[in-house]
Amino acid sequence: MYLQELQLQNFRNYTAADLRLGQGINVLLGENAQGKTNLLEAIYALALTRSHRTANDHDLINWQAKTARVSGRVVKASGTTPLELTFSRQGKRAKINHLEQARLSQYVGQLNVILFAPEDLAIVKGAPTVRRRFMDMEFGQMNPRYLYNLSQYRTLLKQRNQYLKDLQHHRQHDLLLLDVLTDQLAAYGADIIHQRLVLLHRLEQWAQSIHAEISQHRETLTFHYATQVAESALGDPKTICDALTALYQKQRDKELYQGTTLIGPHRDDLRFQVNDKNVQTFGSQGQQRTTALSVKLAEIELMKAETGEYPVLLLDDVLSELDDARQTHLLTAIQDKVQTFITTTSLSGITRQLIKDPTIFHVSAGSVVADESGDSTPAE
């Protein structure tokens, strides 16, 4: 899978841009605050219908305009597909092959992307919500069923939380409706937990191999999915659902008192361990970075295994955060395999040696120009 072309209209600081992209490594070269990350954000949004930097779609629209549009052509083994995403004050519209989609969930998965930025170190050392978001965004791209279950779960969770608040303030007295919402929430929650466990097991296998290689086989990386469901009940969706239902019954008084749902995948976490020690708490900065890099590279392989296509990789100023050894491993792993976009203010000597025949774009003040010099050596 690769993105053949990209067009922007009134997106962030770009009034217009039309790019023909390379199938290999694309380097976005320019000073800070010129629009390099905005280009990656546009590709990310084209894939997932949302930004990775803001929850407010209005932020994506150029201040001089009322709408913003991102479009492109995705090439897969099955053929070429035009995609289009439009943001406006009224919402957003997504098109596949020029046909508007009734639901955004029908659109996600046409273009798969993996983003790796300095803040992705938070996958290891950040709050649980960061790791839950990581699982939901990546697994949702790979598995339409996961995305559907997640959407249903979030809707039910919002309804159940509101009903708990109504009960808390005596605006409602019907516990039968609470039972109905609880049963539905447990069913979707059980599917999400089961799918997470399956996909995390596969991701762990890839990450272990990569981590061992980067650490020269001195370290072993393992994953642990932290949930309130007993380990003995994590066999299949039915046993997980039964366990969740029992937990909801046990916590009912506490949930009614607090007015919120205390059990479920929205409260779970993912922990990384290196040599059986929690790398978040006890790992060095080097171990944390190696873990984050291993997980990201493992995502590439898992997505290929799950979808049959390699994703597009977005590296936002991440090379400056990695030492020479980790840079070498990253660039060697993706060369000739994954379409990659790298933002950087300059290219170091080691990067020059490792990137073969890159497509160079010079970015300045919301303008992006392809390097037509014919020189494959990255300019600075």
UniProtKB/TrEMBL annotation:
What is one term from the GO cellular component aspect held by the record? cytoplasm
Q: Which GO terms describe its biological process?
A: DNA replication; DNA synthesis involved in DNA repair; double-strand break repair; SOS response
**Domain of life of the organism in this record?**
Bacteria
Q: Which Pfam families match?
A: SMC_N (PF02463)
Protein name, UniProt field: DNA replication and repair protein RecF
Residues that, per the record, bind ATP: 30-37
> Keywords for this entry?
ATP-binding, Cytoplasm, DNA damage, DNA repair, DNA replication, DNA-binding, Nucleotide-binding, SOS response
Instruction: Tell me the protein family, please.
Output: Belongs to the RecF family.
Subcellular locations according to the entry: Cytoplasm
What GO MF terms are annotated?
Answer: ATP binding; single-stranded DNA binding
In this chain the RecF/RecN/SMC N-terminal domain maps to 2-345
What does the UniProt function comment say about this protein?
A: The RecF protein is involved in DNA metabolism; it is required for DNA replication and normal SOS inducibility. RecF binds preferentially to single-stranded, linear DNA. It also seems to bind ATP.
Does this entry carry the keyword DNA repair? yes
Keyword DNA repair carried by entry: yes
